[in-house]
Model the fold of this input.
Amino acid sequence: MSALALLAASFGAKVGGSDLRASRFTPLLEAAGLELVIGEQRAENVPAGAEVVYSSAVPLDNVEVTAAERPLHRGELLAELVAARPSIVVGGTHGKTTTAAMIAFCLRELGQDPAFVLGTEVPQLGGNARAGEGWLVTEGDEADRSIELLRPTVAVLTNVDFDHHATFGSLAEVEALFHEWVGHAEQVVRGDRLEPVAFELAAPGEHNRHNAAAALAALGLAGVPREESEPVVARYRGAGHRFELHGEAAEVAVISDYGHHPAEIAASIKTARERAGEGRVLVVFRPLRYSRTRHLAFELARALAAADAVAVADVSGAGEPLPDGVSGKLVVEALTQLRPGMPIAWTPALPDAATYIARRARKGDVILAQGADDVTTAAPLILRALE
Done:
């Protein structure tokens, strides 16, 4: 949503917005001069004649949505932008943001003036959105099926896994969605059919070698020769909350990562283990979505079991209603069965999780703040506790 707002403002629209609470994206919007209302949402916040763009986390009876002359789901706005120009859209269960950011970074570094709308800020790109005159690079979201609306020139499908259990009943349903979507694109890259790149990347981890392979294939379809794209993609360092180093204290590195699916958590811990060497990997985990936690509690615990100590905070619902009996404690109970004797804590509040893990860290360890967006707030708490 923040990236769409920034892009619309860059195109010359008058843009404002509201949210119930501030986020790490709020400063980006304020720096761009957007008028924000944080807190109570009211019809009076909507100027006469305004379009209101809303996310899937916002109910249709929201007072600001109903006050709009034209309410527009964010997927519908993105579809309009994608249809208006040559576009590269990255879809898939894992690696969308990194792959899209690699593509946008390479196009910009090679002077092709791309526009982009990304899921998080990318320091090397100066943010998460830009209004260029070249290719539009963005991501498609399968969680609410809004990717179905996007008709790109180049569709990049990174991989397919079973996720978003409130939307899909099986892996077959996810596969059917993506199969239908890529069928509407002029050209398609299937990242899961490509070999990972063999050259060294600034972004660590085997998963990023797969992401880079998909990015390079898409750049090739966009007319960028491989000998030009490879050295640029190799210099891509990463995005916000994607294995992002927040700092070091007492010779302990503190990193945050958005991975919230078991496969993503396993990849993050594996990458942290490579960085730690002889050190340990300690994790603060905040699950994302009640539906995922309910259906994948054991799989989440199995991925976390590769760490040396884990503190689990309560679930970030992402707009989902809270079902009875679903909390982060489900992950703790499963992890206790899988790793008896492992230091494990049920710490519903993130500050308590940060304290628990920081107290157990020693020289050479890597601490991961893993999961939902706001788990990044644990990183500075950990760093202060380590000092």
Observations:
- Residues 145 and 177 are 8 Å apart (CA to CA).
- The first helix runs from residue 2 to 10.
- The first strand starts at residue 16 and ends at 19.
- The two ends are 36 Å apart (CA to CA).
